[in-house]
Design brief:
Number of helices: 16
Helix content: 25-40%
Strand content: 15-25%
Number of strands: 24
Strand order of the largest sheet: 14-17-18-13-12-20-21
Bound molecules: NADP nicotinamide-adenine-dinucleotide phosphate, magnesium ion
Distance between the termini: 67 Å
Radius of gyration: 23 Å
Length: 499
């Protein structure tokens, strides 16, 4: 339906949607052990759309047992990779077949525009899972170049029980970057979605079962970070935690691991990415459009958002006008309206956080050039205008801290060396971009930027084939690409004496 659907079509589809709120453990939908639930609120209008199982330690215990039993049985971990491939391809296919329902769940749950959930989030998730499915029966292990009196086989084996703890900004997409490689490698998975966004995770658990993923291999425990998330982080029988979320919570997972079983931890955390525009950028209109999308897409709730716009002094005024012209056309609207480019913030808390940063920017003396207010408050939902600050000093709070909202901080620089210095001057290192027509400058700046992903004459481009993850306090370990498999496998060497 999505190609021609109208706001009314999506509204009526939403009204007839049946939403699942139970946990998915050991192949079954279940209430939480305590019977507790929490309200799932739609930020579109502030209304409760589902009651969701509030899983805690006893549910995590059950999920870990189910995951462990499945893993040790070999039903999935010892299945031929070509067979796992077929099951995972079917899973990806079912996600695509249910695209409209899943996109609608995502939009209702977190307020992102339906035009993007239908073409970015859901197909992107299916593509990620399919990509790892396709890869897994094409990877070979190694024989070491030892003395001929031995044969040393170096093999990759799955790590076992993997817990994936994920954020709310791209709920299914971020999860799929973990589901794909974790399951393709033969592990059992326990997924903990963010409390703000449990709905698609719970629905795809059913699709996984329908695709033929054996019971216990894919479990979903919705609940709060402090209870369900912490229980996973501290569990003695979880072998690996793969986390995407804030730097603050990422550090907690390191602590949990150190205080429990030394499980391996990989962290995809926050960012404050610099988008550097030099005066010789090849196309200022294209650069301005990319800069605006780099901060306003997904309401700015993007870990690699280009939240610091670094512009060379001589073109700053002209360039900022162009960015704002694009931004003005992205005023927040009803996420179910296919025309809407910017939707609702995920919840009230996040909205207040963003408004607090806007206030901090004003107080620090940055110049508010556009936006700065909440919008559409009569809807009962949570919306913030696309907001642009000029005359920001890189030392200000709005230049140093991750806002995770549609707030752009503009900073000027003199030359490339100055841009590199400012660009690297935060605790983060997730992504960065440089716009220039000079190939030498492009390479020099890209090489000097401390970030896991650097774009030249682009922003937020890429796909499943390239690694994604950060330097410094943006974390370590990489999602996407074949490198992600390193996180979910361990090396075993078997030395065979044939002397
Ligand atoms: P968050 O608060 O760190 O939460 C992430 C996950 O951790 C959620 O499932 C959360 O559960 C859980 N959690 C929270 N407190 C916990 C605790 N004490 N112990 C164990 N688990 C806990 O992040 P968020 O607010 O959902 O998402 C925004 C952040 O994610 C931003 O910093 C953003 O940059 C980052 N992010 C990074 C990437 C990347 O790939 N680098 C991608 C997307 C987002 P609750 O829901 O209960 O809090
Ligand atoms: Mg949170």
């Amino acid at each position: 339906m999505s190609a021609t659907a109208t706001l009314d079509d999506w509204k009526s589809r939403a009204a007839s949607l049946s939403i699942r709120g139970q946990a998915f453990i050991g192949g079954k939908s279940e209430a939480s052990e305590t019977g507790k639930t929490f309200d799932c609120v739609s930020p579109i209008d502030g209304k409760v759309i589902a009651k969701v199982a509030a899983c805690e330690a006893p549910d995590v215990e059950k999920a870990v047992r189910a995951a462990r039993a499945a893993f040790e049985s070999g039903v999935w971990s010892n299945m031929a990779p070509a067979k796992r491939k077929r099951v995972l391809l079917k899973f990806a296919d079912l996600i695509l077949k249910n695209r409209d329902e899943l996109a609608l769940l995502e939009t209702l749950d977190v307020g992102k525009p339906i035009r993007f959930s239908t073409v970015v989030d859901i197909p992107g998730a299916a593509a990620a899972i399919a990509w790892y499915a396709e890869a897994i029966d094409k990877l070979y292990d190694e024989i070491a170049p030892t003395d001929p009196s031995a044969i040393a086989m170096i093999m990759r084996e799955p790590v076992g029980v993997v817990a994936a703890v994920v954020p709310w900004n791209f709920p299914l997409l971020m999860a799929s970057w973990k589901i794909g490689p974790v399951l393709a490698a033969g592990n059992s998975l326990i997924l903990k979605p963010a409390e703000q966004s449990p709905l698609t995770a719970l629905r795809v658990a059913e699709l996984a079962a329908e695709a033929g993923i054996p019971e216990g291999v894919f479990n979903v425990v919705p609940g709060f970070g402090e209870t369900a998330g912490q229980a996973l982080g501290r569990h003695m029988d979880v072998d690996c935690v793969t986390f995407t979320g804030s730097t603050e919570v990422g550090k907690l997972f390191l602590k949990y691991a150190g205080e429990s079983n030394m499980k391996r931890v990989s962290l995809e955390c926050g960012g404050k990415s610099p988008n550097i525009v030099l005066a010789d950028a090849p196309n200022l209109d294209a650069a301005a459009k990319a800069a605006a999308f780099g901060i306003f897409f997904n309401q700015g709730e993007v870990c690699n958002a280009g939240s610091r716009l670094l512009v060379q002094e001589s073109i700053k005024d002209e360039f900022l006008e162009k960015v704002m012209a694009v931004g003005k056309r992205m005023q927040p609207g009803n996420p179910l309206d296919p025309a809407t480019m910017m939707g609702a913030m995920v919840d009230r808390t996040q909205t207040e956080r963003v408004m607090g940063y806007i206030e901090a920017g004003r107080k620090a003396g940055a110049e508010l050039k556009m936006g700065g207010k909440q919008a559409n408050t009569e809807s009962g939902g949570f919306y913030v205008e696309p907001t642009v600050f000029d005359k920001v000093d890189n030392g200000m709070k709005i230049a140093q801290e991750e806002i995770f909202g549609p707030v752009l901080s503009t900073i000027t620089f003199k030359d490339a060396a100055d841009a590199i210095r400012i660009g690297n001057d935060t605790i983060y290192g997730l992504a960065a971009a440089v716009w220039t027509r000079d190939i030498t400058t492009a390479h020099k700046v890209a090489r000097a930027l401390k970030a896991g992903l650097v774009w030249v004459n682009a922003y937020d481009a890429g796909d499943i084939t390239i690694p994604f993850g950060g330097y410094k306090q943006s974390g370590f370990g990489r999602d996407r690409s074949l490198h992600a498999l390193e996180k979910y496998t361990q090396l075993k060497t078997t030395w065979i004496n044939i002397g």
